[in-house]
Every structure is written in structure tokens, then in C-alpha cells.
Write a structure and sequence with these properties.
This protein has 739 residues and is α/β, with parallel strands linked by helices. The protein contains 17 helices and 38 strands. Bound molecules: 2-acetamido-2-deoxy-beta-D-glucopyranose (4 copies). One 2-acetamido-2-deoxy-beta-D-glucopyranose (NAG) is lined by residues 380, 384. Residues 361, 363 line the site of one 2-acetamido-2-deoxy-beta-D-glucopyranose.
Length: 739
């Protein structure tokens, strides 16, 4: 059972998990869907591109007829390639052709606010903040690749919007429950993608159209760009003004994920290909497990589109990150300064506080005392033979840390208690990250000390009882925040060890946003991703000429590593600890500082080919670039996973602040490592806007070591431009421990 697979079905859960099953062909057992990637578009008009794909395919398959039969989708705008049903032999033959960069099976992927913007100090009552400077994201087009959208939500009202930007080249694709008039000046385009899936099957479980049955896409789109909606709440909890990060940005919908079904690489790539054609400025993908096809995002970035991806919800285990290509922004999830205290009254009048999203529904107009039972781990075995009818059951997390912490266990416990006829669950664990809407009965999270008190009461009394009050929501400065959420996937990147991932953390726990006609809490890096998307839209409005790398640099170098009191940001997990760059990259996003970062670390998008061409395309014939470690790429971070000898790494910074500026370097060396920066003073003026400096990183000992962390900060008395550094001293090539 996945992390958020409560009773609401797999896609309703907060993120999209790839089960990485290969798609098996429907015609003949041996054919399956492959993605053939051919690089840049070379033939001009899309029809010529398609014709060239058919030429290539019919040469291998023997006839144009077979080619037409096998072809599922042509990629023709942002990059060239196609998805086709092929046998393994045919795929091999195609991979041998000189023009072909890669051939990969298409994998199946599956889907696993109010307060958050004030928490980030993006408040529309403050005239000088990024929200106002970025004119609420007007003129910016955000592409959301997800489960579609619910156009009737108040969050997508187009009242007061000017005409659709003239550069827009997208479409409003009609379908089940979706008319041309469902596109508007807010939802300016909408398409859907079923490549590799059976449309007849999709119709049974979802709308065969951009309309969102699941809710995930509506939630993420309204978080990135929802209009201002007064009085949004979830049954009174977290009441306030709901809006997206860039509330006037236009939304382009690319539905490539389907309720209960998920999506395919072939469909996601088709969405990205069209989004490049249509003219989006930012692409938001709260999608997991998109394995080897990061070339789609690479083409988008090379055309100036910032691509923002979820980091995954498989934390707190290390090396669980997804979507870690250097050219995208990989987003971790944090918890913010809001909590939902829920009072539990025991039969001895003792009051205990946990957290939940419990509210009184139609059937339960008031809270009453119910029998209380200790259910141990609340596995089916543990509860077998116990009468749970009408009772509140106390369940515990196992003492030994399991891979995914309590997240995997709580869903099972909830189901077992409910199946046994229970009417409430109190779950003992170390984190409140599992808060969510549990349907059917209250589910209160309590910490281990509190859980112990309840157990003592149960042991002492002869007929223990308890009463659960509905949750309240409280916000503000007396709650330690932010913290990296325990479910947020952790680095280092399993794919690119020599860069730091994730890039940034943003609020992603208990986020209230639109689902259908109402508002609902969801948690996940899926929810953190559109926060970053919205902020990128505002930054792009403010700095239209900045590249995706410059925009990323702005948010990474200005991110917070402490809270406003100077206390270090923590990461939930086993154990809870001070967060490091493998939890949150540069830190927690700080949009107002990102608006004016002082210096940026920019990257020529062609450099990505130079550094990563061979690893991305996984084919040697067309890739004769000698491998250069990723840490030589001008990223706003440095990670050296195999530090044996001193290494000198260049970085180049561009002044985007006051023309005349003098910056000094402040170095925090990782333990066991010495960092020197040369020169350590950079003088910028009208003639010198760009400076390159060398970072010399040396191991202090001969050691088969572990990752340690530091930073390099440029400051000029006003601006602070900080990049994280990770280094691991090694002697041997092989190492087992990366935690
Ligand atoms: C979407 O189209 C349907 C069918 O025409 C219509 O009933 C509905 O009101 C439309 N919704 C919006 C927001 O325009
Ligand atoms: C509320 O009670 C009605 C009638 O007893 C029942 O049909 C319905 O399923 C209940 N709803 C919930 C959410 O428990
Ligand atoms: C409960 O335990 C009994 C006796 O050990 C066993 O026969 C039965 O299958 C168990 N039920 C479940 C649901 O595991
Ligand atoms: C491969 O290397 C050769 C010689 O260095 C060079 O001329 C050629 O352009 C390179 N090809 C590609 C595709 O980079």
C-alpha cells in the first residue's frame, strides 16, 4: 500500500508513483510500446517530421502500412521522435540506425492554499513583494501536466482577465464533459493524452477529456495559479483566502494521467512536446517515476521553459529521489506553521492533544465518549478476535524503523480498524506528516509520549473510554517551521551523484486547494511542486529574459536554511535531524529574496548536452563527448561524491543587482574537507558584470568517508548569495553507505 492510498483510491493520493511495469502490447504478445528519440526537430513542418518518422519506421517494418499500424504518437514540436508498438527485435534494429539516439520501452506511471502563501510572505497586501512586482503572474502561461482540471471551481474564474496572450498557440480539445466553452481567459488551453492506454477502458473510470475526475490536477493547478477565492476551507478548517502562487497566470492543461490508471511515458512526452509548441513559460509536473525520458524536459529547458518536478514521496530513506535531471527544478516538501490540534478526553478527565483533520459531519453532530481499546500494531492478525464495534482503537508504530516509517502502516491500520467496525483511530508515531482526510472516522496522530499516557490509562482502568473533539487549526509564529516533511524523498540522486538534488523545498504538507467544486487537504511533493511553479511564474514576469537556470539559481541561492529566529530547519525522519542539502537542496524557498538575488549562476542550455549527453541518451554511437563530471556544470550547488585528490571547480556568477558591487566570499567547509575560493573578492561594475572564480576542494585525510556538507556564500553587505556544497572523501571506487 502506498503512502497516501487511503480510502480515496490510488490516484487521489498525493503523488504519482511509477510502478515501472512495462506496457505489454495488445496486438500479439510480443509487441510493446517503445519510445524512439531522434533529438532536435530537423524537418521543419510537423507533417514533414511525421513523414520522416514513417520513412524510418517503414524501412524497418517492411511497409508503410505496417508503419501506420504500429505508430502510436509522433513527437514533432519540441523534439523529434515517436512512440510505436514494436517487437524487441524491431526495437533493436531501430536503435542501430544512425539517426536514432535512443529506444526505450514506455513505462507505466501511476498517481500515488490558503496559508502557505502568507507563510512564504507572499501577501497581496504588501505592495513591494514579489507577488505585486510580478503583477500576479499576468501574461505568464503555466502548463500543468496532471490529471486534468475542474473548470467550474471558483479558483479558475476568469473574471477580470484580459485577452489570452497573443503568442499562445495551444488548443482547447473537446471530449467527454468538456466543451469549447470550458476553456476561458483563465484556462486558455486544454488537451488530453492516452498514448499507450485503451481509451474504452479510460472512459469507464475517467472523463475522456481534460476534465479532472481524480482531483489531483485541479489541486496542483489551483495551487500554482488559482484565482483569489475568499472564504475557502475544509469543513471550517484552515479557513481563509485560497489562491495560487501566481493568481493571474493563465493555465494550460495537459491531462496525461488518468484516475486509477496513471499514465505512460509516451503520453507524458506527448504533453511536453505540445506544451513546447503551445508556448508555455513554465511546466509543472507533480509526477513520479518518470524514469529515463528526461530528454523531453531538456528540450523544453533549451527553449526557455522552466520545468518543475516533484522529488517523490519515498522519504525519509536516502537515495529515493526522482526527476533529478540537472536541467529541471526538483522540489522537496516542507511543513509550515499550521497545526490542527485535536483534543482527546479520557474517561479520567485527562485531556490530551493530538492532530487530525477530523470534523463533525452530518452524522456526528457532537462528540461522545466511546470505549477505548489498545490494538497494538493494528495489523489484521493483531486485531483478530478483538471486538472493535463502535470503539476508538489506539495503534502503535513498530519500534524498529521500517523503510518508509509509519506512512505505510497507518493506511493499513486505518483500514483494519474500520473493517472491524471501529469508530476512531489514535495512531502513535513520531511525525504529524501523515495528516490527511480520512474518510469514515476520526484518525488522530499523537506522539510517542502522549501515546504512552493513553496506554497507561487503558492499562489502569477497567473500562477505558475516550472522546475525540473536532480539530481546530492554529497558525503562526509559535509553531516551529518549516520542517522537511518525512515523506519527502531524499538525496543523493541515484541518477546524478555529482550534482545536489533536490534543489529546493516548498510547503507540501496539508495544503488546502481546489478539488472539484470544493477545497481539500492534500500532502505530498506533488503539492510542493506547484508552489515553486507559481513562484517561478512571478519571477519570470519580473525578469522575462532570465533563463531557466537563472530562475533556478535565484530561488536556490536565496533559500532559507534557518527559520526567522535563526534556528536551523529540521528534517522529519528516523531520526529527526537538522536538514542538509540532500533533504532540501539550497533550503526552504524564499520568494521575496529570490526576486532580487544579487548574483546568478547561469547555464548555457547547450552545456547540458556537453555534460550529460551520453548519460541522457544512453547510446554511444552519436555520443562522442568525453564524460565530464556534473559538478563542472555551473549549477548553484556543488557535490563531489568521490573526493580523493584536490579538485578545482570553476563557477561563474553574473551580477543582476546594483551595477557597482563588491562581494566577499564566506566559506563553510564540510567536515574533513578544505574549501578555498580564488579570488575571494569579486568587484562588479559596468564593464565587469560576470566573474569566474575557482573553488578548490581538498580532502584533509585519506579516508573511505561519508558525505559532509558546507556552503559558499557571496555577500556584499546587503545580498547573501549562498550555494550548498556536499563532498565525500573516498579511497575506493565502491562504497555502500550514502545515508
Ligand atoms: C463546461 O461545459 C459544460 C457543457 O457545455 C457546461 O455545462 C459547463 O457549465 C461548462 N463549465 C464552465 C466553467 O464553463
Ligand atoms: C450517514 O448516515 C446515513 C444514514 O444512516 C448513511 O447512509 C451514510 O452512509 C452516513 N454517512 C457517513 C459519512 O457515515
Ligand atoms: C483469526 O484467527 C482465527 C483463529 O486463529 C483464524 O481461523 C482466522 O482465519 C483469523 N481471521 C483472520 C481474518 O485473519
Ligand atoms: C565527434 O568527435 C569528432 C572529433 O572530435 C568531431 O569532429 C565530431 O563533430 C563529433 N561529433 C559529435 C556528434 O559531437
Amino acid at each position: 500500500m502506498g503512502l497516501y492510498s487511503s480510502s480515496r483510491g490510488p490516484l487521489a493520493s498525493a503523488l504519482l508513483l511509477c510502478f515501472c511495469m512495462l506496457f505489454l502490447g495488445v496486438h500479439g504478445g510480443s509487441r510493446r510500446l517503445y519510445i524512439v528519440y531522434l533529438g532536435d526537430v530537423k524537418h521543419g513542418h510537423p507533417n514533414d517530421v511525421i513523414a520522416s518518422h514513417h520513412d524510418l519506421l517503414s524501412n524497418v517494418l517492411g511497409s508503410m502500412e505496417d508503419s501506420l499500424d504500429s505508430m502510436i504518437h509522433n513527437y514533432k514540436h519540441g523534439f523529434s521522435g515517436f512512440a510505436a508498438m514494436l517487437t524487441e527485435d524491431q526495437a533493436k534494429q531501430i536503435a542501430e540506425l544512425p539517426d536514432v539516439i535512443s529506444v526505450q520501452p514506455s513505462r507505466r506511471c501511476r498517481a500515488a492554499t490558503t496559508r502557505s502563501w502568507d507563510f512564504l510572505d507572499l501577501n497581496y497586501q504588501m505592495p513591494n513583494d514579489l507577488l505585486n512586482k510580478g503583477r500576479y503572474g499576468e501574461e505568464i502561461i503555466i502548463g500543468v501536466v496532471d490529471t486534468g482540471i475542474w473548470p467550474e471551481s471558483r479558483s479558475f474564474s476568469d473574471e477580470g482577465y484580459g485577452p489570452v496572450p497573443s503568442r499562445w498557440r495551444g488548443k482547447c480539445q473537446v471530449g467527454q464533459g468538456w466543451d469549447r466553452n470550458n476553456c476561458s481567459r483563465k484556462i486558455i488551453g486544454a488537451r488530453f493524452y492516452s498514448a499507450g492506454l485503451d481509451e474504452e477502458e479510460l472512459k469507464k473510470v475517467d472523463y475522456l477529456s481534460p476534465r479532472d475526475k481524480d482531483g489531483h490536477g485541479t489541486h496542483t493547478a489551483s495551487t500554482a495559479a488559482g484565482s483569489v477565492v475568499e472564504g475557502a476551507s475544509f469543513h471550517g478548517l484552515a479557513a481563509g483566502v485560497a489562491r495560487g502562487g501566481a493568481p493571474h497566470a493563465r493555465i494550460a492543461v495537459y491531462k496525461a494521467l488518468w484516475q486509477g490508471v496513471g499514465g505512460t511515458d509516451a503520453a507524458l512526452l506527448a504533453a511536453i512536446d505540445d506544451a513546447i509548441h503551445d508556448g508555455v513559460d513554465v511546466l509543472s509536473l507533480s509526477v513520479g517515476g518518470f524514469s529515463d525520458n528526461s530528454f523531453g524536459a531538456l528540450h523544453a529547458v533549451q527553449k526557455g521553459i522552466t520545468v518543475v518536478y516533484a522529488a517523490g514521496n519515498d522519504g525519509p530513506s536516502p537515495q529515493t529521489l526522482e526527476n533529478t535531471s540537472p536541467w529541471v527544478i526538483t522540489v522537496a516538501a516542507s511543513k509550515m506553521d499550521r497545526s490542527f490540534p485535536t483534543v482527546i478526553t479520557l474517561g479520567n478527565k485527562q485531556q490530551i492533544v493530538g492532530q487530525s483533520h477530523y470534523y463533525l459531519g452530518r452524522n456526528s453532530s457532537r462528540s461522545i465518549f466511546r470505549s477505548l481499546e489498545y490494538g497494538g500494531l493494528c495489523t489484521a492478525d493483531a486485531l483478530n478476535g478483538t471486538d472493535l464495534k463502535g470503539k476508538i482503537v489506539l495503534c502503535a508504530t513498530p519500534n524498529s524503523p521500517t523503510g518508509n516509517g509509519p506512512s505505510a502502516i497507518i493506511g493499513q491500520a486505518f483500514q483494519n480498524v474500520r473493517n472491524g467496525g471501529g469508530s476512531g483511530l489514535i495512531f502513535i508515531q513520531y511525525t504529524t506528516d501523515l495528516l490527511q482526510e480520512w474518510v469514515g472516522m476520526p484518525c488522530v496522530l499523537v506522539d510517542i509520549d502522549t501515546g504512552k499516557k493513553i496506554r497507561q490509562y487503558i492499562k489502569a482502568g477497567s473500562s477505558p473510554v475516550a472522546k475525540i473533539e473536532p480539530a481546530r487549526s492554529i497558525t503562526g509564529k509559535d509553531i516551529l517551521a518549516p520542517k522537511v516533511a518525512s515523506f519527502s524523498s531524499r538525496g543523493p540522486s541515484p541518477d546524478y551523484a555529482d550534482i545536489i538534488k533536490p534543489d529546493i523545498a516548498a510547503p507540501g504538507a496539508s495544503i488546502l486547494a481546489a478539488v472539484g467544486d470544493s477545497y481539500r487537504f492534500e500532502s505530498g511533493t506533488s503539492m510542493a511542486t506547484p508552489h515553486v511553479t507559481g513562484i517561478i511564474a512571478l519571477l519570470k514576469a519580473l525578469h522575462p529574459n532570465w533563463s531557466p537556470a537563472a530562475l533556478k539559481s535565484a530561488i536556490v541561492t536565496t533559500a532559507s536554511v534557518t527559520d526567522e529566529r535563526g534556528m536551523p530547519i529540521l528534517a522529519e525522519g528516523l531520526p529527526r535531524k537538522v536538514a542538509d542539502p540532500f533533504d532540501y537542496g539550497g533550503g526552504h524557498i524564499n520568494p521575496n529574496r529570490a526576486a532580487d538575488p544579487g548574483l546568478i549562476y547561469d547555464i548555457d542550455p547547450n552545456d547540458y548536452n556537453h555534460f550529460f549527453g551520453c548519460t541522457v541518451t544512453k547510446i554511444s554511437a552519436s555520443c562522442n563527448v568525453t564524460y565530464v563530471p556534473g559538478y563542472f556544470l555551473n549549477l548553484p550547488s556543488i557535490s563531489v561524491p568521490n573526493l580523493r585528490y584536490p579538485v578545482s571547480i570553476p563557477r561563474t556568477v553574473t551580477n543582476v543587482g546594483e551595477v557597482d558591487a563588491v562581494y566577499h566570499a564566506a566559506i563553510e567547509s564540510p567536515a574533513g574537507v578544505k574549501i578555498e575560493v580564488e579570488p575571494s573578492v569579486l568587484v562588479f561594475n559596468a564593464a565587469n558584470k560576470v566573474h569566474t572564480f575557482q573553488v578548490k576542494i581538498s580532502p584533509m585525510w585519506r579516508l573511505q568517508g561519508d558525505y559532509t556538507f558546507g556552503s559558499i556564500t557571496w555577500y556584499n553587505g546587503e545580498k547573501i548569495v549562498r550555494i550548498p556544497v556536499a563532498a565525500r572523501i573516498t579511497i575506493h571506487d565502491s562504497f555502500a553507505d550514502v545515508a
